[in-house]
Description:
The structure holds four protein chains of four kinds.
Chain A: H1 5-15, H2 18-28, H3 33-54, H4 70-80, H5 91-109, H6 126-147, H7 151-182, H8 187-196, H9 200-203, H10 205-218, H11 243-268, H12 280-300, H13 307-330
Chain B: H1 4-11, E1 35-37, H2 47-51, E2 57-60, E3 67-71, H3 80-84, E4 90-92, E5 107-110
Antiparallel strand pairs in B: 1-4, 2-3, 3-5
Chain C: H1 2-15, E1 19-26, E2 29-34, H2 39-48, E3 54-62, E4 66-75, E5 79-88, E6 93-95, H3 105-115, E7 118-120, H4 147-156
Parallel strand pairs in C: 2-5, 6-7
Antiparallel strand pairs in C: 1-2, 3-4, 4-5
Amino acid sequence: MGLDYAAVKEEIRQRMTTETIISLMSILVFPGAMFLFALAFFYEWVDRKFFARLQNRYGPLHTGPHGILQPLADFLKLLSKEDITLHASDRLLFILAPIFYLALPLTTLFVIPILDPTSSIAFEGDLIFVLFTFTLVIITVFLAGWSSVSRFSTIGSVRAALQMLGYEIPMGLVVIGPAIAARSLSIRRVVEWQSLNFWMILLQPLGFIILTVCLLAELQFVPFDIPEAETEIVAGWRTEFSGRKLALLRLGKDLELVLASALIASLYLGGSQHFWLIPPIVIFLVKTTFAVMLLSLLRAVFARFRIDQVLSGMWKYLLPLATLQIILIQLGLGG
Amino acid sequence: MAFLKEALKQLFRRPATLKYPYEKLTVPKDFRGRPIWDIKKCIGCGLCPEVCPSRAIEMIGKGLEAEIKHYVDRCMFCGQCAEICPKNAIRMSEEYELSGFDRSKMIYEYKRDH
Amino acid sequence: MEKENEIVEKLKSFLEENLVNVIIPRKRRIFVHIKRDALRETIEYLMKDLKFKHLSTITGVDLGERIEVIYHLSHEGSIMLSAKLTVSKKNPNISTITDVIPGAVLYEREVHDLLGVNFKGHPDLSPLMLPEKWPEGVYPLRKEHKLKHLRQITSEK
Amino acid sequence: MSHGSIIKIPFGPQHPALKEPENFLFEVDGETVVDVKPRLGYNHRGMEKAFELKTYIQNIYLAERICGICSHAHTTCYTQAIERLLGVEPPPRARYIRVIIAELERIHSHALWIGLAAHEIGFDTLFMYVWRDRETVLDMFEMISGNRIHYAMNTIGGARRDIHADMAPKIVKGLDFLEKRLEYYLDIVQTEQTILKRTADVGILRPKDAVDLCAVGPTLRASGIENDVRSDDPYVAYDEIPFNVVTHDGCDVLSRILVRCEETLESVKIIRYALDSMPNGTIRVRVPMKVPQGEVVSRVEAPRGELIHYAKSNGTTKPERYKVRSPTLANIPALCKMLQGGYVADIPIVLAGIDPCFSCMDRMAFVDTKKNRKWVWTMQQLRRKYAKE
């Protein structure tokens, strides 16, 4: 049946207009994958440096100016390390989990307006899509831990699932707040609405606090790093991963940090909006860096909870506060 | 949240950690580093190999012809040899960076110049 | 020294011939030799009537053909009484005191591991310190096992 | 409530929560611990056999290396025992030097432990701060004795180095800074909510159990029992120095933290008093190489509790028998009692609660060979148990 190469070449030449190239480039390079990877490494550097300075130490120093290339160096080092797949583990899941864990935050980030208020893929209801991917991430975490057979990762994955039960509902409730205020379920409209009126943090401060706490739990940062509690269960669900898989997992976690800080910036701090001459992307970067530093600060001042304390704490305190926030908005207080 | 104030204060203080090996701490006066033999003062009495708890000193020959072999990888810097030496031929130096890759290079020989 | 003498008097009146001899080398230290089968009643008497509540440790000493077991008990943390008894190497059996002092469980296992004294009635005399594949009957702290011989055992594996 | 099957989880010998190799086999039902079986000996270096093969002078440095954090306690106990056998009395100034170094070591050991406990419950920032402030004590040690950890200040018959007059002001300045910081940490530990949630009512040890299981040191004092070798059976120069024994009756990990924090503050006062009232004079007495026949029991209050050395000499230059019982071994039965009934997640902090120093405890028989631990429970058991949850 032989492929007619000439026809295929002709077809590509015809399709390859400048417009498709630009959109391809915007997906692959600028506000797309490459840029987000670079952003992920940068934010990991910001987080590690700020966290270190809070603890009165230097943090990464020697790779690049002020150690800025350290996350990249770690990534490349892990790529070169031996990649063990346990023979007793569930091979398919064990290999796919890191890939999903990286892909999910990456695709979700396209929904958030970065370059300018009109992000490349924006549709009505992408806020629900973001919430859905957060749940998917935790399911991938659960499958990753469950498929690697060691008991530490199994306990870690069960704890990750339990913790999700805790923060999922308050987060869902609280994220709806800005949507109600902006009368739309699209992050792009929420950003546009905020550029016309006040930032959402001034209108719904309670929502901001609850969202930050829930994102801390979603990112498994210290007060809620029970699924990978270093002193109890070695590295929790990530214990059995090594080499390339671990590199993907770490990059996935950095992207999740970018996603979380982008969500905080877009929903509550006005996202990437025009501010007389400064291009919106710089505004976006400043706000997300602030969000990363806020998360890092919270990570530094708490000890780790126990899983039963997290669940009871979430259900007894966070859920009522989230419903209170919704009630306040209905009463017209939230904008 | 009681810890927040303290944590933020640290932001403006110089980090307490040291950029070793670029910056090095100065070692106090009589620090117990690697023991150094002054072979001219040594009369080969054989007290130091006998008293060394980890048998890190080996003496070849006797009396004024004695030569010392010091195994730094076995030495624990307790300073007992410097203390017991009747002629004060052993001095605890300030060297503490003694790690290496090859144990055979960690033997210091003190020969008599004939 | 009057507290120590008072304790020794009470002990003498209680044990009579079982008490072989008593030494008080200095303040707050008493060394007592007792017969082997008087162990349990001495320990109970010391614990209940003379308030020696705290068992510091149990020491085993190899005397050649006999093994000496020393129980160090302390009276409100200050006076330390060491009750000593000897056991022959051929049948090194003593009754346990874990029911009187639960804290003695690890000390007895330790003496059992290293000197081969077995304590009848001890809940679990499994090896505490020795590796699992340690040959039977080799008790490291006994004088007849020289260091070279013991090093061969560990290097064989 | 034990609905599921009992699962055995081996904890150690390699585990991030344990800085030293020891192995606890936990029988866990659901999230609560049912039973604990300790399996020790991984850090066993055959020291008591080694004691019998070295001379008394060499044994000082062997005793010192039984443990890294309480090395001075071991050498004080050792030299005290041999001096008792020789019938030699160290000069008063040497006894004061021993008290000062012992109390500095208590601060250094307790500070290290407070940082470690914070790390066990995930509070790394407090860990970093406490260990940064602990550096002042280590610098003092380096100034006085020439080494940060193994100070080798003790020898049979007195002290090897003197605390000169020019060192005293530096020590006092360092102590003032330390006292301020330790008071701050004492306050933080009682107000920081996340620490309270992880340490209050965790790892309970009733006073009756503590006495029955012969616990020692801060673990015993945190259950309300006032028992401290320094005040009950004073040695070195503790009978001439006024200090009070710190106790709390909370019986949980929080009160253990508080006891240790307040003890460090107490140590600062002891050192200040000792520095002021230190008598002048020689610091050492010459002693013969051979020790006459005899036996002695020597007791010292190490940072972790009562430390016992039993020495038996036979007139030669080598001891006939030398027994060391370190405080951690005394606390293991109490530790197993505390762990029963607790959460699996609390194991690290309760385990750290008694400040275990396993290199102290394992020092009798031989370095262990490789351990091939078989798979304790199968994959199906695990899935069935968690599937039921």
